[in-house]
Amino acid sequence: NGFGPDVLALKTGAINPGGATNMISFFDGNNTAIGRIEGNGNNGVFYGTSGGDYAESLPRLNLSERIEKGDIVGVFDGKVSKKTTGAQYLMVVSSRPAVVGNLPPEDQEEDYVNVAFLGQALVKVRGKVRVGDLILPSGYNDGTGIAITPRDLKIEQYPQVIGQAWESSNDTGIKKINVLVGLPFYSRIASEISSLKQENQSIKQELQILKKQVSQLQSLLKTFDTLYSLNKPNRKIKGGDFKNEM
Questions:
Q1: For residue range 175-221, what is the model confidence (pLDDT) as tens digits?
Q2: Rounded CA gap, 47 and 36, in Å?
Q3: Which pLDDT does position 246 carry in this prediction?
């Protein structure tokens, strides 16, 4: 009525709108649908997009550093850089975010990059990749990563894992690979770390048992040695005990 707070309201004649009821559709210049808001068939709506991850805008550590989509970045006190050595967190710059949080004012957007927090993200990777490989920083501090099979991953490398490859490539150069990042993957890593901790605890317990058994054996040996010292023959040999027979 012009006096209320509402700006836009969309209404459909369907009592329980499903996927056939598009509230809003988005198209590119070629009339290709790139997103929509439609009914979900359960008295609600869902938001559909070709974007693959939830991202947030994080400030650059160095404003002059060039950071591109797909770059692996290190996070230092909330700011990002392609330098990964010594970083508190390792993440990737989003190529196709579905949602972007923490968006800065338009006049400051150049000072920020959209970093993928959860979902599927394209990551720059060096060398061949197989589905299921784990992606880690290459160590060149240039935004690229490398692929390592889970069985070859060392314990000290766990904190460096960015995500898991969901596609393969025989290209030995640098290319973008679709990678699972965020909570689903890190839940698996946490589970594996927990399993390693349990295994380590079992080894410690077995080691304690072995130490106790060794201590008991040492005590028995000491007892046997003492008994032997007390009971060993102490007869002195006399010269007459030996005779020369011709």
A1: 999 999 986 566 566 667 767 778 888 888 899 999 999 988 888 88
A2: 6
A3: 43
* Amino acid letter for position 224: F
Q: Nearest to residue 114, comparing CAs of 125, 127, 101?
A: 101
- Nearest residue to 39 via CA among 30, 50, 47, 28: 47
Q: Are the CB atoms for 181 and 118 separated by under 8 Å?
A: yes
Tokens matching residue 237: 């040999």
Q: What is the per-residue pLDDT across 157-175, written as a single tens digit (0 to 9) for each? A: 888 999 999 999 999 999 9
Question: What span, in angstroms and rounded, lies between the C-alpha atoms of 189 and 96?
Answer: 25
What is this structure's pTM? Answer: 0.73
- Burial code (b: 16+ CB inside 10 Å, e: under 16) for 158-189 equals eebbbbbbeeebeeeeebebbbbbbeebeeeb
Is the Cβ–Cβ distance between 179 and 121 less than 8 Å?
A: yes
Interior CA angle at 202 toward 197 and 205, to 5°?
Answer: 125
The number of beta carbons lying within 10 Å of the beta carbon of residue 74 is 20
For the chain, domain boundaries: 1-50, 53-190
Backbone angles phi, psi at 90, to 5 degrees: -120, 125
How buried is 91 (Cβ within 10 angstroms: 0-12 exposed, 13-18 middle, 19+ buried)?
Answer: buried
CATH architecture of the domain formed by 53-190 = Beta Barrel (2.40)
Segment holding 88, helix H or strand E:
none
